[in-house]
Each structure stands twice: as structure tokens, then as C-alpha cells.
User: What shape does this take?
Amino acid sequence: MTKVFPFTAIVGQDDMRRAMILTAVDPSIGGVLVMGDRGTGKSTAVRALAQLLPKIRMIEGCPVNSARARDVPDWADAVTGRAVTRPTPVVDLPLGASEDRVTGALDIERALTRGEKAFQPGLLAQANRGYLYIDEVNLLEDHIVDLLLDVAQSGENVVEREGLSIRHAARFVLVGSGNPEEGELRPQLLDRFGLMVDVTSPSDIDTRVEVIRRRDAFESDRTGFLRRWKDAETDLRGQIVAARKRLSKVATPDDALEDCARLCIALGSDGLRGELTLLKTARATAAFEGADEVTRDHITRVAAMALQHRLRRDPMDESGTATRVQRVVSETFGPAVAAAE
Assistant: This one.
């Protein structure tokens, strides 16, 4: 098995790590988009997260990772019906993948000659109840983007060929990474990511030295390095599991709802997806930190990652979108709140 750099050993990039942890606490937040320069740990963090996630219970042999026997598709073969525990799936979607590779392919000849539904599951089936990761997501072909938008909206993958139709569940957390210099994302896909964070190369010597030291130690002795970070990984995994259990018990007072709405109105964000994502992210933060209810502090700390990619472009404002969010937070709730960020 390939040894992956531990999530807890990543130096800096606090916003990126926090965003990924929060989507692990509450997958309904809707995924993470990480944009930044090459070599800033984007892919490393995603693959490290895969090792960190708690395992899931599924029906053995089910191609879509169904939790219950009654949810197993009728076209599935080699399903034992026995419940087993497996790692949370994290599936890579390569840029050059064909539509059939993504959605799955029907065997038309077998269907016509033998009257059987023969289906080869694709990446969407493998990613159900897990994570779908797209590196260089801003370079993804338009027809694959359209397909992902449809599936993300419905939570179901539908494959239709020659009058035959196959359906299966396809609910996953979408994680994308890319370099903004290589192109922008279509707004429709951008809006499907619950959170967005920007990452940059560290500018101080101490941080850069620590990054180099840890990476060199990992490559020199992977087994020993993983052993040294095992306890930290176990602790963080336990925190995520505890936060998931606590999530439904976190209270959401009306004041918190009003703060979410007031902030989104002040920012001029379109629709209500911003408020909902902001609320879910703040609630996941409260659950992860062991708080009993969502507070303004939780909301303002995650506002930039939940809202920056939902803002309209302002040609008169050359500051970054995250900076605009922080400025509006300060104007809406006072400078003391923004300073606490």
C-alpha cells in the first residue's frame, strides 16, 4: 500500500486544512475548492485526508458502496449481502477521462442478445458516499463539467444508451484543486463547491524550513515518519468522529441565522446557497470545537471560505474576494470581530 504524507504533519495552510476537516464533519457542506500556486500542498492534503477519514459500513461487493442491502442496484453482480467496514472512498477524476469512464458504460450487445442489464460502473459509482477529487479542475472539459453539475444537483447518476437506462446513487463530496493562472472555473461549477480557500507558498523562512525538514524526513524513512505521527492522526480522526455525533445537537439560535442573512445581504451574494453553506460550516466548526451552539465568532471565522467564490465581480475593487469578505465582516459586525479572525 502506498504510504501517504500524514494530514497532521502538513505545515501551515491552516485554512485549507480547516476547510477539509469541516467537510469531513459535515459532508453536506458541499466540498472544497483549493486554488493556489504549484507546490503548495494541495494534492498532498487531499490524499492525506483520505487516510484520515473514518471508515464506512457498506454491503460487501456493492459497486456503489451501499450502506443497506435494499439499496444495492439490481444490476450489481458478486454482492454477498454481508455488511463490512471499508475506508471512505476517495476517487481521482483525471482530466482526460472519457464520459463512459466517469459515468459508467452499458454493454448494449449483452443487453440485446441476453436481455440482461450489464453495466460497468464508472468513477461516480466508486465515489458514492465518499470524495471525488479533481486536480486542475479549472482545465476540466466542458461536457464533463455539465455532467458533474447534473449529478451534483440530483445526487443520482443516470446512464442512457439505445433506449436502456441505468440509475444509481452518486452522492459525494467534490474536492477540486487548481492554479488560477491556468484558467478560471465556470460560475456554475464554482457555486457547487461549498467552500473555497486560496493557498500560497509560505513567505517566512522558519515555515519553509519546517516544510522541507518534514518532507525530507518522510521521503527518507516513510515508515518511521508515519509512526511518529500516528497518535496525532488518531486523535484528529477521533475529533472528527466525535464532531459528527455532536453535530445534530448543536443549537442554532435566531441571532446566528440573522447574522448569516445580514452578512450575505451586505456582500450582495446571489441566492440563498451562501447563507445555507455559511450556517452549515459555522455549525460544523462549533461541533468540532465542542460548543453547544453556533455563535457570531463561528460565523465570522468561516465567512471568507464559505462566501468568497459567490461574490459578484467588482471592477472597481482590485482586492481579492476573501479580503472583500473580511472588510464587509468588519463593516457589518465591527472591527473587533474582524480583528479576531
